[in-house]
Amino acid sequence: MTPITYYNRYTGSMETEQVYGESFLKWAYGNPLGKIALHSFVKRPFFSKWYGWRMNQASTKAKIAPFIQQYQLDESEFLDSADSYGHFNDFFYRKLKPEARPIHESAAVFPADGRHLGFENAEEVQGVFLKGQQWDLRSLIADDELYEEFKGGTLILSRLCPVDYHRFHFPCAGVPSACTTIEGPLFSVSPIALRQRLAYMWENKRTRTVLETEAFGKVLIQEIGATCVGSIHQTYQAGQAVEKGAEKGYFAFGGSSTITIFQPNKIQLAQDLLEHSSEQREIYARIGDTMGTPM
Questions:
Q1: Which of 13, 147, 159, 229 is 20 to 30 A removed from 20 (C-alpha atoms)?
Q2: Rounded CA gap, 242 and 244, in Å?
Q3: ∠ CA 28-29-34 to the nearest 5 degrees?
Q4: Which residues are catalytic?
């Protein structure tokens, strides 16, 4: 399979992703026997629930130090010391020191560390991860009234890998609604899977929050569940104003994605995000960095 490459905003160079569990993903999504297993049990919530339970066991603490070393994580960013975590999940959804992720003052910011794609009109894009694939925004939103408000809107996909910081934040200041859960299976959201079927994004279990803002109007925020994501935890209070960059929640073990949707003509996306996304190339950027500015 073609390697997963992305543009790193900070180094100005193309890099190749180290895919955690790559051999399993290639087997599950590329091998006929793997696909049988995928549809028989891997996509089902009980499998991910079991895996999340496994990562909560004290014995998994031994995985933390080798993981940090293998993926060269910066321990100086951690709010707590690496040896303070009771199990791997504790480490996985660790908090960072506030100064590790400064929040840009005059722009909407990326809601998570990860690899991002941005599209000015999501419904006009032909070829997301694979030629011919297109966003089904109505199915993704799963609410006809909301869809009418956001159709033709700007969409930013923020994809988190298992090696990333796994808390997600608000991209701009505002007042958030209660979170709605949309049930579904749990397919992988790695490009290995999405190159075959983008529809996993609107078939998977996901959550939906509407953020009322002054600068950008209504902003729709979704968190996408995925294989081996133990759960999606929301830590904000509905109806209570939040600052830009405030924590919204976190994913337990597993890589996943957040999706941010703006109404049409509300945001001008950052130029590097637009340029690389037009080539179906993700850019790596961290939470708090510039995603776009008001129009």
A1: 13
A2: 7
A3: 35
A4: 113, 169, 256
pTM: 0.89
Helix ranges (DSSP H) in 71-123: 88-92
The pair of structure tokens assigned to 265 is: 């003509």
pLDDT tens, per residue, the chain with 295 residues: 577 899 999 999 999 877 655 555 554 556 565 565 555 545 555 455 656 667 778 999 999 999 999 889 999 999 999 999 999 889 989 999 999 999 998 899 999 999 999 999 999 988 788 778 889 999 999 999 999 999 999 999 999 988 899 999 999 999 999 999 999 888 878 777 888 888 888 998 999 999 999 999 999 999 998 776 657 899 999 999 999 999 999 988 766 899 999 999 999 999 999 999 999 899 999 999 999 999 8
**Cα→Cα distances 197→63, 81, 94, 134, 147, Å:** 32, 40, 31, 10, 22
Which range marks the domain in which residue 70 is found? Answer: 5-294
Q: What angle do CA 223, 196, 206 make, to 5 degrees?
A: 15
Q: Kindly give the pairing relationship between strand 218-224 and strand 256-262.
A: antiparallel
For residues 228 and 247, give the distance between their C-alpha atoms in angstroms, rounded to a whole number.
22
Distance CA 275, CA 124 (A): 16
Residue of 35, 68, 110 whose CA lies nearest to 270: 110
Domain count, the chain: 1
Give the list of residues 6+ apart from residue 182 with CB closer than 8 angstroms, or none: 142, 205, 206, 207, 208
The count of other CB atoms within 10 Å of the CB of residue 153 is: 24
Say how far apart CA 50 and CA 31 lie, in whole Å.
Answer: 23
What is the rounded distance in angstroms from the CA atom of residue 191 to the CA atom of residue 186? 15
